[in-house]
Protein backbone atom coordinates (compact mmCIF):
# COMPACT_ATOMS: atom_id res chain seq x y z
CA UNK A 1 0.00 0.00 0.00
CA UNK A 2 1.51 3.28 -1.02
CA UNK A 3 1.06 6.62 0.70
CA UNK A 4 -0.56 9.17 -1.54
CA UNK A 5 1.78 11.98 -2.47
CA UNK A 6 0.19 15.33 -1.76
CA UNK A 7 -0.18 17.38 -4.85
CA UNK A 8 0.08 20.63 -2.96
CA UNK A 9 3.33 21.20 -1.00
CA UNK A 10 1.57 23.83 1.12
CA UNK A 11 -1.01 21.26 2.25
CA UNK A 12 1.73 18.81 3.24
CA UNK A 13 3.57 21.53 5.16
CA UNK A 14 0.32 22.49 6.89
CA UNK A 15 -0.32 18.86 7.98
CA UNK A 16 3.25 18.59 9.27
CA UNK A 17 2.80 21.84 11.16
CA UNK A 18 -0.43 20.51 12.70
CA UNK A 19 1.37 17.39 13.92
CA UNK A 20 4.22 19.44 15.37
CA UNK A 21 1.82 21.77 17.16
CA UNK A 22 -0.11 18.81 18.60
CA UNK A 23 3.12 17.27 19.94
CA UNK A 24 4.20 20.63 21.33
CA UNK A 25 0.86 20.99 23.12
CA UNK A 26 1.26 17.53 24.65
CA UNK A 27 4.77 18.38 25.86
CA UNK A 28 3.58 21.66 27.37
CA UNK A 29 0.78 19.81 29.18
CA UNK A 30 3.30 17.32 30.55
CA UNK A 31 5.61 20.09 31.75
CA UNK A 32 2.69 21.95 33.31
CA UNK A 33 1.60 18.83 35.19
CA UNK A 34 5.14 18.21 36.47
CA UNK A 35 5.49 21.84 37.54
CA UNK A 36 2.19 21.70 39.43
CA UNK A 37 3.25 18.50 41.19
CA UNK A 38 6.58 20.07 42.18
CA UNK A 39 4.84 23.19 43.46
CA UNK A 40 2.44 21.04 45.49
CA UNK A 41 5.39 19.15 47.04
CA UNK A 42 7.14 22.41 47.92
CA UNK A 43 3.98 23.81 49.38
CA UNK A 44 3.48 20.67 51.48
CA UNK A 45 7.03 20.94 52.83
CA UNK A 46 6.87 24.65 53.56
CA UNK A 47 3.33 25.08 54.74
CA UNK A 48 2.60 23.32 58.00
CA UNK A 49 -0.47 23.41 60.20
CA UNK A 50 -0.20 25.53 63.32
CA UNK A 51 1.79 23.88 66.06
CA UNK A 52 3.83 21.68 63.73
CA UNK A 53 7.51 22.16 63.07
CA UNK A 54 8.72 23.24 59.66
CA UNK A 55 10.66 20.82 57.50
CA UNK A 56 13.98 22.34 58.54
CA UNK A 57 13.10 22.02 62.23
CA UNK A 58 11.99 18.42 61.74
CA UNK A 59 15.26 17.60 59.98
CA UNK A 60 17.27 19.23 62.77
CA UNK A 61 15.30 17.32 65.42
CA UNK A 62 15.77 14.03 63.57
CA UNK A 63 19.51 14.66 63.19
CA UNK A 64 19.80 15.37 66.93
CA UNK A 65 17.85 12.20 67.72
CA UNK A 66 20.06 10.25 65.33
CA UNK A 67 23.20 11.55 67.08
CA UNK A 68 21.79 10.57 70.48
CA UNK A 69 20.92 7.09 69.21
CA UNK A 70 24.41 6.66 67.75
CA UNK A 71 25.92 7.59 71.12
CA UNK A 72 23.68 5.07 72.88
CA UNK A 73 24.64 2.43 70.33
CA UNK A 74 28.35 3.07 70.87
CA UNK A 75 27.85 2.73 74.63
CA UNK A 76 25.92 -0.51 74.19
CA UNK A 77 28.59 -1.91 71.87
CA UNK A 78 31.30 -1.07 74.40
CA UNK A 79 29.32 -2.70 77.23
CA UNK A 80 28.68 -5.76 75.08
CA UNK A 81 32.38 -6.09 74.25
CA UNK A 82 33.28 -5.79 77.95
CA UNK A 83 30.75 -8.47 78.88
CA UNK A 84 32.05 -10.73 76.11
CA UNK A 85 35.62 -10.30 77.33
CA UNK A 86 34.52 -11.15 80.88
CA UNK A 87 32.66 -14.28 79.70
CA UNK A 88 35.69 -15.34 77.65
CA UNK A 89 37.93 -14.88 80.69
CA UNK A 90 35.57 -16.87 82.92
CA UNK A 91 35.37 -19.70 80.38
CA UNK A 92 39.16 -19.82 80.17
CA UNK A 93 39.42 -19.90 83.95
CA UNK A 94 36.83 -22.66 84.15
CA UNK A 95 38.56 -24.69 81.44
CA UNK A 96 41.86 -24.43 83.30
CA UNK A 97 40.19 -25.38 86.58
CA UNK A 98 41.18 -22.15 88.20
CA UNK A 99 39.37 -20.12 90.72
CA UNK A 100 37.63 -16.89 89.80
CA UNK A 101 38.21 -13.86 91.98
Quick structural summary:
With 101 residues, the protein is mainly alpha-helical. It is 79% helix and 0% strand.
Topology overview:
Elements: H1 9-46, H2 55-96
Could you characterize what this model shows?
The chain is mostly helical. It has two domains: 8-47; 53-101. It is 79% helix and 0% strand. The protein has two helices and no strands. It has helices at 9-46, 55-96. The longest helix is centred in the last third of the chain and has 42 residues, at 55-96. 0% of the residues are buried. The model has no long low-confidence stretch (mean pLDDT 85).
List its traits.
79% helix, 2 helices, mainly alpha, 101 residues
Q: Number of folding domains? A: 2
Please give the largest β-sheet.
Answer: none
The helical percent reads over 70%
Oligomer: single chain
Number of β-strand runs? 0
Distance between the termini: 101 Å
Amino acid sequence: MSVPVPSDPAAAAFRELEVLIRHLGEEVATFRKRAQQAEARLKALGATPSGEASAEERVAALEAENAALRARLETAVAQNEAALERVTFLRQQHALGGETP
